[in-house]
Write a structure and sequence with these properties.
- The protein has 458 residues and is α+β, with helices and mostly antiparallel strands.
- The chain contains 8 helices and 11 strands.
- The N terminus is likely disordered.
- It is found in: Membrane.
- Its main location: membrane.
- Keywords: Ion channel, Ion transport, Membrane, Signal, Transmembrane, Transmembrane helix, Transport.
Length: 458
């Protein structure tokens, strides 16, 4: 037991001594390398040498996409490495100490910027970032940024659009002969760097957008007499359209179809025609409410109205066309009844096809047959004359004069009845004709609505 206690005490003392030695070595390294160091001087031994910087960019998350203002907010992870020739030491002189941690305000840093940024914020737990420094002068700096970048939106296919947003990394003060930026790893689409899944360039997506492409190339840009090294990244964001399909597109299509069906349903021709216009106007009001809901969400760009706005306007136009056609049908139907218009030949053809079994006895043949029956009932040569007593022939002339009076009254009544029956028959012809027009317009407008929806959204 005592032997184990001494062994444990021995290892504890040894651990403390090693920690103190390593801590002292790191402090000695810091004192040695920063003795005559100037952080404002480019870290090359000769002025004509070019400093090469390796840069790695990873998109940790897509925070938001603002279509009206045309900018995207990313959460970015960056890694940049370079060699500072002034910050080197021999590990043998410091008991094998090969790496130290330094703060970003102690050493020279390249002025690397996101050139198309609107606003940028560094995310760090401390005021200064800690940087890895190796004995050969190799520096590795990791940064986490919240960047709001400008992105010109192509809104023509909204909400089935794919946005290509650039991320431009460049130098501000140093030209191409002084500093050159390189991709730390080749950017091949969404494939992980070096084939390691833990080093994917895109680590998270937005709830409305998914990343479909990511590229990066090294570019040399010329500004005036000087050339500058830049890295041009491009990220493709494809919108998930499910929200707009189920909230806007399908309700708009169904409302327009119900509007057409309600306006041109033939079963409500007689007493409810005036209500059809009210139905159409109510539908237009609902369409305007839907358009107002998505108006603030639709991006505004030089391409004009997006696909979603065009679709809603077409739906409103179809409803308006249905209301106008229904109004004309109401006007012509009302005037055909009040002004006793004679139906054209094609109206009789349509009514003959559709009312041959249910013309309700108002055809001209029925009118002639009714007239013949009436003459038979009141003719002087009929049964009324047969009941007259042959012995009272003197009353024949009186009865004949009375029959003539009745016959005149009957003929006048028959004429009025015939006019009423002809009027009812014409009304039936016009009613059948406008029923047919309603049915034809119902089918045509439903087909037009479906065809336009398929062409625009197919």
């Amino acid at each position: 037991m005592l032997h184990q206690f001494y062994r444990l005490s021995y290892f504890s003392v040894l651990f403390v001594i090693i920690s103190v030695v390593c801590g002292n070595n790191e402090r000695n390294v810091m004192d040695a390398i920063f003795r005559n160091y100037r952080k404002t001087v480019r870290p090359v031994l000769e002025q004509n040498l070019t400093l090469h910087i390796d840069y790695e960019l990873r998109v940790y998350n897509i925070i938001s996409v603002d279509e009206p203002d045309q900018h995207v907010t990313f959460l970015l992870w960056t890694v940049r490495t370079w060699k500072d020739q002034f910050l080197t030491w021999d590990p043998k002189d410091f008991d094998g100490c090969t790496t130290v941690k330094v703060t970003s305000d102690q050493i020279w840093l390249p002025d690397i910027y996101l050139l198309n940024t609107l606003d940028i914020e560094s995310i760090s737990l401390t005021d200064t970032d800690y940087i890895d420094l190796s004995y050969d002068g190799q520096i590795r700096q990791l940064r986490k940024l919240k960047a709001q970048l400008s992105c010109v939106m192509a809104i023509g296919e909204f909400p089935f659009d794919t946005q290509i947003c650039p991320i431009t990394v460049g130098l501000w003060a140093y030209n191409y002969s002084e500093l050159i930026l390189h991709l730390r790893f080749p950017v091949v689409g969404l494939a992980p760097y070096n084939g390691d899944p833990n080093f994917a360039p895109i680590m998270g997506n937005n709830s409305e957008f998914e990343t479909v492409s990511f590229t990066g190339v090294e570019v040399t840009s010329k500004v005036g007499l000087f050339s500058y090294s830049e890295l041009h990244y491009s990220i493709g964001l494809k919108r998930r359209p499910a929200y707009y399909i189920f909230v806007v597109l399908i309700p708009s299509y169904l409302l327009t179809s119900l509007c057409i069906i309600g306006i041109f349903t033939p079963n409500s021709n007689i007493n409810e025609r005036n209500e059809r216009v009210t139905l159409g106007l109510t539908t237009l009001l609902f369409m305007a409410v839907i358009l107002n809901i998505v108006a603030d969400q639709m991006p505004k760009g030089k391409e004009g109205l997006p696909l979603l706005g065009i679709f809603v306007l077409y739906e409103i136009g179809i409803c308006a066309l249905a209301i106008v056609l229904s109004t004309f049908i109401i006007i012509f139907h009302q005037r055909s009844l009040t002004r006793d218009w004679k139906p054209p030949a094609f109206c009789f053809w349509i009514s003959g096809v559709r009312t041959s079994k249910n013309n309700c006895g108002v055809s001209p043949a029925n009118i002639t047959r009714n007239r013949a029956l009436a003459y038979e009932r009141v003719s002087p040569d009929g049964s009324a004359n047969r009941v007259i007593d042959k012995n009272v022939e003197r009353q024949t002339a009186l009865l004949q004069s009375v029959c003539s009076m009745f016959q005149g009254a009957i003929e006048s009544t028959e004429k009025r009845l015939q006019e009423d029956e002809v009027k009812k028959y014409r009304e039936l012809i016009w009613l059948t004709f406008f029923d047919t027009i309603d049915l034809v317009l119902l089918i045509l407008l439903l087909l037009l609505n479906t065809l336009i929806s398929y062409i625009l959204l197919g």
